Amino acid sequence: MKVEKELNIKRPCLVVADLEKSLEVYRDILGFRLDYVSEASSDSYLYKIFEFPKSAKVTFAALSTENEPRALALTEVKNIVLPPVNAPHRIALVVRVKQVSERIDKLTQIGLKVIEVNHFKQPPNLSFTEQAFFDYDGHLIMLYDAKVDD
């Protein structure tokens, strides 16, 4: 049997309190495609890795981009209260999107907190726009786009 030696990050898995509200952000505004939703069995590995109590009800959703199958997972957990996420933040999900400002406008309209936009250039002729926001569960998400200057 041949074992691949390539390093690969499969997908981040974000724990959320309300899957439908999270899909409003990740599917409807950012543009991920929902592949499937599945209720986790009581012996699911998700309970172990996230240390959910057995009383929790866990639902898993897989989302894709047009180029990356199952690039993001959302794990909804019910019957427990998720603790708040406090600063300093220890991780950010970085997502390349087109029209950063249009997406940030939509995120602002649904009441999510956004961080001031940042623009910068990189040689020889790249211009970047980046702007971060916090989703309903306090996850830090940074959106960016890069354009080639003429």
Summarize the structure.
The chain is an alpha/beta fold and 150 residues long. Helix content is 18%, strand content 36%.
Biggest β-sheet description: 4 strands, mixed
Straight-line distance between termini: 50 Å
Could you state the order of secondary-structure elements as H and E?
Answer: EHEHEEEHEEE
Residues in helix, % = 10-25%
With strands numbered from the N-terminus, the spatial order across the biggest sheet is 1-4-3-2
As residue ranges, the low-confidence spans are none
Average pLDDT, all residues: 95
Number of helical elements: 3
Question: Quick one: how many beta strands?
Answer: 8
Rg from Cα: 17 Å
What structural class do helix, strand and pairing data support? alpha/beta
Proportion of strand residues: 35-45%
The 3D shape can be described as globular
Describe this structure in words.
With 150 residues, this protein is an alpha/beta fold. Helices cover 18% and strands 36% of the residues. The chain has three helices and eight strands; from the N terminus they run βαβαβββαβββ. It has helices spanning 19-29, 45-50, 100-109; strands at residues 13-16, 33-39, 57-64, 72-78, 92-96, 118-122, 126-134, 140-148. It has a four-stranded mixed beta sheet with strand order 1-4-3-2, with helices on one face. The protein has a four-stranded mixed beta sheet with strand order 5-8-7-6, covered by helices on one side. A hairpin with a 3-residue loop joins strand 6 (118-122) and strand 7 (126-134). The chain starts with 12 loop residues before the first strand and ends with a strand. The model has no long low-confidence stretch (mean pLDDT 95).
